[in-house]
Amino acid sequence: MSRSLAALCLALLLAPPALAEPSAMPEPARPKQLLLISFDGAHDNALWAKSRDIARRTGAHFTYFLSCTTLIPREKAKGYRAPGMKAGRSNIGFAPTVEDVAVRLDHIWAARQEGHEIANHACGHFDGKDWSKADWLSEFQTFRDIVTNAWKANGLADREPDGWATFARTGIRGFRAPYLSAPDSLAAAEKDFGFAYDASLVTKGAMLPDEDGALLRFGLPLIPEGPQNRNIIGMDYNLFVRHSAGMDNPSQSQEFEARSYAAFKAAFDKEYEGERIPLQLGFHFVEMNAGAYWRAMERLVTDVCHRADVACVSYSEAIDLLAERPVKTPS
């Protein structure tokens, strides 16, 4: 063996073993982007049918904040009395007929079976900013009693689904105050009544819910909207007031839809591409400006809810999914 070859062999034997390149640590899986769509009032039966159809086509689950006077026919209005009000008064009226109530009850039960959530929006839609804790508790109990007894009170006892009473007493976990009016007395009453969450706040942007003892407090976010990107509450009524001063203007419906969709999608994309904070958007069972805001909502859920890393869920489902997220530790 030549000296050069022998030297090469010796060098190879004495050389330290080659180390494999350290493999890159896998990126932690990002949580799903949560989108929470809710409806206040939940009265118009045609919009019950429409919203459930949208959900079936998109895979979304909605939260319906129900006003309980919609389960009382006008002829029995005197049976409801809000705190500090005369019997039979309601800011949103009552159901026109028993037949109208029956259709609504069917929608409520069917929606629940389909995975949607029924939540509490009080009864007569009064501004409770000056209500005491006792006043709120009275309204909560009235709501529970009216929903529990809705079939029997309307002469429909033979049609009441199995499980309805249990649902009415224990299955309604959340509350949103009319006019988003949330004094300190409200949270105190919600805790005593056993609600899991409140959805009456307004936040500067999309935020995780605050934990106030046993109560989670969600807030509708301010989102940029319009040519000047001015902030507005992510809710159809607020857009309606900004766009047309709260007066229906069907001639500009397409324009209002385009503006609303652009605002909703931008707010969604900000969270989806960022920290994956849940986005909440609120609507009513009224098609303002010839349906502009419902169409914008439908476009959004159609565009995003099918994605594997998006979950369009109710508030209660969001609570469970958020509880599964790993807790971030300070870096």
Could you describe the 3D structure shown?
There is one protein chain. The chain is α/β, with parallel strands linked by helices. 41% of the residues lie in helices and 16% in strands. The chain has 11 helices and 10 strands. The protein has helices spanning 3-14, 45-58, 98-113, 133-148, 150-153, 164-170, 184-193, 236-244, 253-272, 288-304, 315-324, and strands at residues 33-41, 63-66, 117-120, 174-175, 197-203, 210-212, 215-225, 230-233, 279-284, 310-312. The strands form 2 sheets. Strands 1, 2, 3, 9 and 10 form a 5-stranded parallel sheet that branches. Helix 2 packs parallel to helix 3 (98-113), helix 4 (133-148) crosses helix 7 (184-193) and helix 8 packs across helix 10 (288-304). The longest helix has 20 residues, at 253-272. Residues 1-15 have low confidence and may be disordered.
Low-confidence stretches: 1-15
Amount of helix? 40-55%
User: Which sequence of SSEs, written as H and E, runs from N to C?
Assistant: HEHEHEHHHEHEEEEHHEHEH
Strand content: 15-25%
Biggest sheet, open or closed, and with what strands and sense? Answer: 5 strands, parallel
- Describe the oligomeric state of these chains in a short phrase: single chain
Distance between the termini: 59 Å
Q: What class, by secondary structure content?
A: alpha/beta
Query: What is the overall shape?
Result: globular
> What's the number of helices?
11
Please give the radius of gyration in angstroms. Answer: 26 Å
Give the overall pLDDT as a whole number: 93
Please tally the β strands and state the result. Answer: 10
